[in-house]
Amino acid sequence: MTNVYNIAIDGPAGAGKSTIARAVAEKLNFVYVDTGAMYRAMALHFLRNGISASDEADISLAAGNANVTLSYENGVQQVILNGENVSGLIRSEEVGTMASAVSVHLMVREKLVELQKELASRENVIMDGRDIGTCVLPDADLKIYLTASSQVRAKRRYSELKEKGQECSLEEIEQDIIRRDYQDMNREHSPLKQAEDAVLLDSSDMTAKEVIDRILMLFKDKLKERS
Fold first, then answer.
1. Residue numbers belonging to the annotated binding site for ATP
2. What backbone torsions phi and psi does residue 198 show, to the nearest 5 degrees?
3. Which tens digit of pLDDT belongs to each residue from 120-142?
4. Distance between start and end Cα atoms, the chain
5. Which residues make up each annotated binding site?
6. How far apart are CA 110 and CA 87, in angstroms?
7. What is the pTM of this model?
């Protein structure tokens, strides 16, 4: 058995998974795998090609023509779509909504999950997404289900967009979050749910530092169990 460690973080949109996972990875010197960024890159590919999220035939065909890979520059993940670094193009609300919609398609999931599993088999990784603990890394050493109320998640997203100078509506953001939650939890393939052996962390009343410290403590406990 190789001495590789995996941490899985699942949870709904806007729960802070990426921020938390990135910080924990840095402290543990793990590779951070932002699976959401991979789905966003695929969504960007579909948007550029004018493909509807509901057109399964075109989605399957286009997914086969999309090459999404990850690279790391100075420890920072870069998302590459068909040879182009799209890391700065995939964080819009439009791309996020499209990513949630197209992730229901089996062809999209299968293509990206294969890459995710391969990465985790050879590197110490912390991976976040919707189905990491349940499907992608069912044998992860530590599984976290990170959530927060829709109101709190909407306020966080609203503040982020305002800081970037973008006009937005708090009410619309919360409605979009609720809609994406329903979509993610009720999709046919790999729906969002808490793995049976995952630790539930509700960050509604926690600071980012408190969440990070809690995960680090939980992982330290898992290491003791494994040694």
1. 11-19
2. -85, 150
3. 998 899 999 888 999 999 999 99
4. 13
5. 11-19
6. 22
7. 0.79
